[in-house]
Amino acid sequence: MLKKIGIIVGSLRENSFNRMIANTIPELVDSVEYEYISIANLPLYNADLDHGEGPETVMRYRESIQRTDGIIIVSPEYNSGIPGVLKNALDWSSTPTKTAVLIRKPAGLIGATPGAKGTILSQQQIRQTLDAASSYVMPFQKMYISQVLDKVDSESRKLTDETTRKYLQRYVLSFMQWIDQVQRLNE
């Protein structure tokens, strides 16, 4: 059966480097169905709004995650941490507590930055949030893309650095194996 992976980009910027990385993933591993899950129109999390299925945009967002076998989050690092828009989205997908769409959902983390250190601090915070939401974050595999300006083409909006493309392909293939392992855990 064809796996379905949801891709969430933790940046709203149209020409985001992380969006370019996300746009490259489907051409590296084409034996998977992908769905881009937008976080752009989610309201700020407010428990007063989080009753029933929540606001319509939240309901559609949660349904998108539910339809996937796993999610890959591709996110920048802002001020040494998780972008606020992504934290907001993860908060919406971690409620209601007992039926949240992130519970037992396999998750992978990728991040790109123009700097030299990658997105280490942001990914630590994202991992912490996903752990709190009872998501199964892929262990041991880390995908930090530093100095991304030298690795993407702004016209095609894709990752062009061959070495990084190979690492990204290997990461996505490992993530597909992680989905299989989590499915066995959930049986």
Automatic annotation (TrEMBL):
Transmembrane segments: none
Gene3D superfamilies per the UniProt record, alphabetical: 3.40.50.360
Domain of life: Bacteria
GO molecular function terms attached to this record: FMN binding; oxidoreductase activity
GO cellular component term of the entry, any: cytosol
Residue ranges of every copy of the NADPH-dependent FMN reductase-like domain listed in the record: 4-146
Pfam families the UniProt entry points to: FMN_red
Family to which the UniProt record says this protein belongs: Belongs to the azoreductase type 2 family.
Protein name per its UniProtKB record: NAD(P)H-dependent oxidoreductase
Organism: Cohnella luojiensis
